[in-house]
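Lecture 7 notes. Example A: sequence first, then its C-alpha cells.
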Amino acid sequence: MVQKNLIDGEWIAGSEAFRSINPSNTNDVVGEYARASADDARAAIAAAKAAFPAWSRSGILERHAILRKTADEILARKDELGKLLSREEGKTLVEGIGETVRAGQIFDFFAGECLRLAGEVLPSARPNIGVEITREPVGVVGIITPWNFPIAIPAWKIAPALCYGNTVVFKPAELVPGSSWAIVDILHRAGLPKGVLNLVMGKGSVVGQAMLDSPDISAITFTGSVGTGKRVAAASVEHNRKYQLEMGGKNPFVVLDDADLSVAVEAAVNSAFFSTGQRCTASSRIIVTEGIHDRFVAAMGERMKGLTIDDALKAGTHIGPVVDESQLNQDTDYIAIGKQEGAKLAFGGELLKRDTPGFYLQPALFTEATNAMRISREEIFGPVAAVIRVRDYDEALAVANDTPFGLSSGIATTSLKHATHFKRNAEAGMVMVNLPTAGVDFHVPFGGRKGSSYGSREQGRYAAEFYTTVKTAYTLA
C-alpha cells in the first residue's frame, strides 16, 4: 500500500510513488510513499494559510491535549516505531528506539509549554499607561528535515510550531519518509483540525523549491547541507520571512595528557562512530596532546576492534550500515583523499560484507593528520575520524576553534582549570566535558555558531524565539 501525503486534512495520492529501502538489507522494501508535486505543495501551503486564523486562536487546552496524546502514542509504540526508524535509516535498534523515546519526550514537553505561555506586564515611562508584552504565532511554518534523525528532528520542529499556534507544511527527507509519515498520522488522529499540519513528501528540487518560492510561508526551519541552507536563506530574504538553519559541523574532541584514558576513548568512539558517524554533532577531529597521543591511539585501535558492524536490527550490533550508496561513496572518497593528503589510515576503512546486502563500512581512524587537510576541514558525515597531534592545551584549543563550523566541541580532561577555560573559550554552541560531542537533552537549547547554524536555538523554551513574534501593547489607564 502506498502511504499518501496529508493535505488539508485528507490523505492525497501523488502522481507517482517512490520506495524506501533498508540499508542493512537492500532487498527489503520498507514501504512505498506518494511523491508530492509542486502543485501539491502549493495546495498544502494554501490549506495551512486558511487554517491559521482559527488554530492561532485555539485554546491552550486543545493544543495541550493533542500534543500530549501524540506523546503518549509515540512512547507506547516506541519499539515498533524504533524498528521502523532503524530499518529505513540504518542506525541500530537501540539507537532507533532511543530516538523515538526522545521524540515522545519532545511532544510531552511542548504539551506542557502550551499551558505555560507567558508574557510581561510593565509600567510605562509615562504616567497612567500600562504595557503588555506578548508572544504570538508567526503564521505558516515550512519545515524541511534531514534523513539522519527521521523522527527526533521532525518532532523538535513540529511540536513547538503547533504548541505556539502556527500551522505547518512539512517536507521530510525523501530517503526516510516512513518515520515522518508515522508522526503525521499520529498527530492527525490525535485531533488536529484540517490544514493545521500538512505532509508533502517528495524531491527537494520540487516540493522544497515550491515552499521556498511561496510568499505565504512566514517562516522556514531547515536542517541539512550547507549548500541547501544557503539557498533557503537567500529565498527567505527575498520574501522577508524568518528562517532558521542547522547545517552541520566539523566538531573537535580534545584529549589532554591528564585525561582518564578509558573515559577519553569511550567518548571519542561514541562521538566519531556511533550512528555510523551520521550526526551533525559527530566528532571527526580528535585533537590529542603529545604526552598521551600514542597510548590514546593504541587504545582507540583496540576499542575499535571490538565494535560489531552489522544489520541494524541484529542484537549486539554497535554500528549499522551507511544510509545509502551515495553516502557510502562519499565516505570512501574521503578515505582515499585522506591517504592522498598524507594521513596514515591506522585502522579500518574497509567495505564489509554481511549476511544481507547493505552499505557496510568499517569505521576509519586516521593518524598523522593536520588541521589543514580536507578530512579535517570538510564534513564527511560518515564513520571517518582523524587524530591531530598537538603540543599542549593552548594549541589544542586553537586547533579546535580553527574551523568554519561551530556546533559542538568536546574535551577529555581531569583538570578543572582546563575544563572551565574550554567551556568558556570553545567557539561552539554546545560544549561537552568528558562526554561524547553528540547527545543533547530534549528540554535544552540546541544549535551552533559560525557556519553550523543561523537563527535562534531549537528545542526547549528557547524554541519560542523562532516560532513566535513579540507584540508590545500600550493601554491608557
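Example B, a different protein, same format:
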Amino acid sequence: MTKTPNRAPDPLERQPDRAPADEWHDVGGVRLRRPFKIRRLGHFGYNCVDIDAMLDFYVDSLGLIVSDRSGTMPARLPAEIQAELGPNEKMLHFTRFGSEHHQLVFISQRVWDWVGQANGSAGASINQVTWQVGSLAEVVGGAEWIWGRGERLLRSGRDMPGSNWHTYLFDPEGHINELFYGMEQIGWDGLSKPSQMWSGVFHERPSLPQPSEATEVADAGGAGIDIASGHRAVEPTPDGVAVDGVVMRRPFKIVGIGPVSLFVEELEAAKRFYTHILGFDVRSEVGWNGHRGVLLSCGTDHHNLALYEVGLREAIGLDRRNDSMALGFRLANYRQLRAAVAHMVARGAEEVQVPVELVPGFDYVSHLRDPDGNLVQLYYYQRQCAPEDPFPATVSGGAAQWPEVIDAPSDVFGGQQFLGPWQ
C-alpha cells in the first residue's frame, strides 16, 4: 500500500503539551489545537471478493438495510471489465441500520482495483474509514490544515448518494480516512433522495458558506423533481419474533457501529498520525505473544480505533488480504447480543477466538468471520472512560459576560453527535 512521503516538521510533535498561541484554532468558539474535532466513527467500507455472499451475510443475516445502489463509479469502467462482472458487482451498495443514509458500504474488489490504480490503493480490502466532525467549516479547515502538514490528501468535496461533504486522506499505511460533517437522513418512509438530486456533487474543496439542506430540498421541489421517488428497501413482513416488546424479523437490533481495527506495518508511525494529525487520544497499549497494539479514542468510549502490528493477522488466522482485524457493531442489550451470536452461528457463521488481551474495554464480545474473511465484532456495551482532568467550574450568567473564545475542557464535544446535515 502507498506510503506517505516525508513530512515537514510538525509543531504539535515538538510541543506535545501546549501549542504556541498562533497555532490554536477557533472551533465553534472553543480553542483547539486543530481546526476540527473528530466526534465518532460515521461509516466504513469494504472492497468485496464475493459481494453477493457479503450482502447475504450483512443484510440478510445481520439485518442491515440497503439504502441505495449506485452505478456511477462502475459506469467509467472499461467495457472488457464490465463484461466480466455480474449485475450486483456493477454497483456500489450502501447499507444502514439506523436513519443515516449509509453506515457500511460495499464495492467489488475488481472495481476498486481498477479505480485505485490512479491513487495507489489497488489491492486494499478497505475503501474508507469515515470520521464525523462537527461542521462543514471543520471539514474544509481540516483539509487545509492536514495538507499543510505534508499529509497526503485524496480529494475534498461532496459525494452522492448520501449528500455528505468530506475530505479524504491517507494514513501512513495507505488506509483511506474520510472526515465528514453530516449525512443524509432517511425517515419513516424509508426513502433516500432521488438520483435527480445528486447534481450537487463536488470534486473540489467547496467555498463557504453553502446552502442548507432545507434550501436544496426546496429548490429540487421547485424544479419539478419528485422528492419522494428515491430508493426504498423492500423488507419482507416480520415473521413474529418478539424483541423487547417489538415484532422483528431477527431476535436482535444493531444500534451502533465501531470500533474499527486496522493492521499496520509500522505501529509507531500510524500511532503518530492518528494522535498528532487526527487528534485521537491513546487509551491503552496491548500485547499478545509478542504482537503489539494501541487502542485510541476520540470521545468517552473506551476506544474507537485499534491499531495492531500486521504480524498479528496470521497469528489469529486471518487472510493476508484483510487490512482490518474487525469492525464492531453494538447490539441494543446483552440479551440481544447472545441472540445475535446464536442466530449468526445457526446460519453458518464461524466464531473466531480473539485473545482477550487484545480487546479490552468490553465485558462480553464475540468475533464472527464474514465471507471475505473479515471479523465482525459484536458487543452490547463498551466501557466509558471519564477524562482524568477535573471538570471546569460552572459559569452562569448572560452571553455579554462570557468570553468570545474559551479554552477546551478535556471532554469537549464528547457524547452523542447530531446525525444529519443542518436544516
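Note on Example B: The domain at 238-387 is CATH 3.10.180.10 (2,3-Dihydroxybiphenyl 1,2-Dioxygenase; domain 1). Residues 136-148 form the longest helix (13 residues).
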